[in-house]
Every structure is written in C-alpha cells, then in structure tokens.
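Example for tutorial group B:
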C-alpha cells in the first residue's frame, strides 16, 4: 500500500507516468541519479520522442523521433531535481519548441521557395505550416476574388514537390514529402471545388466545413472546423504525418475525493476491469490515465 501511494504521488505530479507499469516506473525511480535511465521509456510517455540528446554535462539539447528526426530543444535544460520535476520541464520545452518552430517556419514560408522550405523544417512543422499557409491563401483568394489564381499556384507548387520526390532524398525527407503530398492533393481538390462552386464568402459551408489552421496573434495555432475551434496541442509528432487538435470541456474533475485540474491538452479515461465481481474491489482497481487526445487528419 505504501509503495502504491508513493508511485501515485509521482504520477500525479507527472501524469505521463500513468502510461508506465509499476515495474517500469520503479526502474526509473531506482536510478533517479542517472537521467539516462528514462531513455527506454520515453516512447511510452510521449507521442513520438524516442530519445533525448544528453551532452557530456547531461544538458538536454535535442529530441529524436522514432523515425530518426532530430529537433533542437528550445530552451535547453538540465535534468535537475527529482525525475518527475525535470520531465515536466522536458514537456514544457517540447511544447515551446513546437510552438516557436511553427512561428519561425511561417515567417520563412513567405520568403523561401516551397521546394526549399519543405526540406528546411521538421516534418510536423512542414505539414502544419503548409496547412496554415493554404488556409490563409484560400481566404485571401476568396476576399480578393483571386482564388483561381491561387489554385494555379497550388498546381505549380505540387509539380515542384513531385519533382523533389523524383530526386535524391534522405529517408526522413522522403517521409516528410510523402505525407505532405497526400495532404496537398486533398487541399488542391478542395480548392478546385471552391473555384467551381464560385465561392465568394469565407462563411460558405463548402469552406468552413474544411479543417482550417490559423496562426493567431503570431503566437498560437488554432484549428477550426465549421464553428468549432480547437487549440493545437504542440505535442511533438515526428514524421507521423498526423496533425493534432485538442479541446477541453471541463476545467476540473473530481475522482474519489481528489480534485484534478484538467488541461486543454489532456483527456481523462477511467477504465475498470470487467472481470472484477465485487464493486468494492472494482473501485480499488480503477486507474486514471491522462492520454494525449489527438485526431489523425489527412
């Protein structure tokens, strides 16, 4: 009972520990003075951080996806204090890295040819940035009655991407382009439909029914569909080709007397072992996990 309570305090402080078994968590805690001990378990705690880059002085400077993509952390950090303390800092740095990189890439997409731009940024950023640029381009085209011109520019851009695929690329770059082209082809088809339907209002259902990405106040990414708006989660996804939108319905959740503050980037799932007969025993077996809520969008 005492050990279970101890592990629970660690999980409450860093909810991603709920994804680990008691044995795995104990393995980490028993080597608390060795930050590298978390490496084998990162993939279970994060969507696609396969490992962290530790310098000789143990400073954490980068994260690697399971596909081998490397992204520099912003900011760098040292694993100081309890393991759950500095893993919270890793999570914060991960989200800040994704957020700031999205902003930088959107500035860059305005001045760099698309065929160069797609090879300069991480895969997740390329997909998000392209979708954000497409949303902006379509709405500007509707407002200025130049949507057909924007559609022609999209066709030229797709021709350029196809040319890149035929060339010599590293494995990670080819993965990025493969995911991007699928999404851009869908965007092309949607844009073509808007042109044929002669859409002249950004509130037209043919447009608002699409998944749209907005960089708001040069700081925050919002995902909209019809009249719903979702905050982007900033979870590092690597080259999975997926986009993530997250939404919270409640501010707080009370479970067995514990007041749990809900974050917009989390969903709460309560699971019960159906084999348990005794209601009292069942309640003791209930587990709470905070799972990253995300949609897979193509």
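The residue assignment follows.
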């Amino acid at each position: 009972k005492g050990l279970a309570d101890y592990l629970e305090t660690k999980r409450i402080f860093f909810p991603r520990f709920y994804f680990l078994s008691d044995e795995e968590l104990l393995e980490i805690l028993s080597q608390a003075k060795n930050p590298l001990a978390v490496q084998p378990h990162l993939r279970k705690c994060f969507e696609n951080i396969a490992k962290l880059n530790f310098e000789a002085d143990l400073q954490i400077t980068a994260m690697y996806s399971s596909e081998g993509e490397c992204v520099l952390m912003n900011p760098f950090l040292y694993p100081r204090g309890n393991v759950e303390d500095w893993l919270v800092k890793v999570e914060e740095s991960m989200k800040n890295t994704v957020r700031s990189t999205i902003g930088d890439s959107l500035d860059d997409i305005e001045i760099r040819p698309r065929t160069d731009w797609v090879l300069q940024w991480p895969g997740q950023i390329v997909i998000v940035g392209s979708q954000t640029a497409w949303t902006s381009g379509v709405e500007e085209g509707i407002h200025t009655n130049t949507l057909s011109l924007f559609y022609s520019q999209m066709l030229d851009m797709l021709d350029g991407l196809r040319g890149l695929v035929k060339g010599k690329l590293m494995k990670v770059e080819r993965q990025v382009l493969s995911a991007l082209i699928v999404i851009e082809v869908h965007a092309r088809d949607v844009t073509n439909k808007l042109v044929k339907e002669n859409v002249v209002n950004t509130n037209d259902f043919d447009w608002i029914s699409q998944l749209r990405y907005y960089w708001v106040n040069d700081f925050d990414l919002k995902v909209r569909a019809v009249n719903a708006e979702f905050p982007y989660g900033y979870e590092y996804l690597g080259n999975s080709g997926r986009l993530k939108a997250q939404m919270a319905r409640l501010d707080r959740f009370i479970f067995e007397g514990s007041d749990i503050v809900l974050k917009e980037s989390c969903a709460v799932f309560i699971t019960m072992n159906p084999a348990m007969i005794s209601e009292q025993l069942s309640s003791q077996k209930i587990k709470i996990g905070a799972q990253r809520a995300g949609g897979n969008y193509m």
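The longest helix spans residues 83-108. Compare this with the pattern of hydrophobic and polar residues in the output above.
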